[in-house]
Amino acid sequence: MKNKGAFTAPQAQAYLERIGCTRPAGATQGALDELVYAHQCSIPFETIDMYQCTEAPDLDPDHVFDKIVTQHRGGYCYELNALFEHLLVSLGFAARPCLCRAVCGQIEKDPINHRGILVAIDGREVFADVGFGGPLPCASVNLSNGQEQVIRGERFTTNKLDDYWWAIDRVTQAKKDLYGIEGPSRTQTEVEFCLATVTDKDFDSLNLSCSQPGMEFHDHRIANLRTKDGYYGIWDDTLTVRANGERTRTPLPDEAAFADALETYFGFRPYGT
């Protein structure tokens, strides 16, 4: 790394090539949105290495860069959003991490368990996320209480919970919902995030906690990747492909089939295969 929070010029260029983008002309919200979308369509959320592992993922920036950019692997939020934040800083954005809670429509809320990004643009902050592994916006989200934003056909609303916490709600619709949730239109909270200042070290204990037995990232093999007309997903031994409004599920009966599916749909194979 050149300095804290920034890549060297060759690193930034390699990262941009990894997600199929050119260096933006300026640190605008439009440029940020293009980077978020390209990232979600290029680098998978995945926990393949974490499955039944005895150690937490190594969050050293150089290690994560090698894994995701050089080796063309994926990662989870403490890797993906941290690395993307470094890229944004390298491109001239004022970006910082934030504590989050994945809600995903649950009534009983989990403890803080996610890392997001806040980006200052034109004197205000917007929320961005490339490491959620689920139905979060494929662009930045404005912090405007009650405002609905339509992003590539998906509808989101930001709601202020108190002086520090905000929530992002998603409107799910039959036939139009990217993630295949059917039934009457309804709104559910996907994530809550906090505006309080935090540092990279604040995520070390969360990374350790999320990688323990009993946590889904440890107990299940998960991979998700957005596509231009749907998504690819793996949960343990099942591959899900959603395209053009249709969803198909394919069993992966053995390790060879699992490795082949990872390579075909996510661009990498498990270590040792």
Please tell me about this protein's structure.
With 273 residues, the protein is of the alpha+beta class. Helices cover 26% and strands 29% of the residues. The protein has seven helices and 13 strands. An eight-stranded antiparallel sheet has the order 5-4-3-2-9-8-7-6, with helices on one face.
Unreliable stretches (pLDDT < 50, length at least 5) are 174-181
Helix-strand pattern: HHEHHEEEEEEEEHHEEEEH
| Global shape | globular
Multimer state: single chain
Radius of gyration: 18 Å
Q: Determine the fraction of residues in helical runs and give it as a percent range.
A: 25-40%
Distance between the termini: 31 Å
What class would the helix/strand composition place it in?
A: alpha+beta
- Helix count from the secondary structure assignment: 7
Q: How are the strands of the largest sheet arranged?
A: 5-4-3-2-9-8-7-6
Tell me the major beta sheet. 8 strands, antiparallel
Whole-number average pLDDT?
Answer: 92
Number of strands: 13
- In percent terms, what proportion of residues is strand? 25-35%
Topology:
Elements: H1 9-18, H2 29-42, E1 45-46, H3 61-70, H4 77-90, E2 94-102, E3 114-121, E4 124-128, E5 141-142, E6 148-151, E7 154-160, E8 165-172, E9 186-194, H5 204-210, H6 216-219, E10 222-227, E11 230-235, E12 238-243, E13 246-251, H7 255-266
Helix pairs in contact: 3-4
